[in-house]
Amino acid sequence: MQFAFSGNISQGSFAYDVYEIAVEKILKGPVGFVGGVAAIVLGAISLIGGRYMTAVPSILGGAVLLKADAITNSLGFTVK
Asked: What pLDDT sits at residue 79?
């Protein structure tokens, strides 16, 4: 199995800092958790109200936001 990104990763680079803030601190942190739960709650309320076109994307988006760290890790692999 090969990784999509391999090689020397310098921790002082700009791209690494952006990744660290966006993924490690926001998506995996409390902001990502609260956003995911809020999206799922909004989807559940919309589902109860019969607004299916709002409910389904909200629930799916909330689930993706809650599992964003696993998704970003799985996208680091390439299929050979």
From this structure: 42
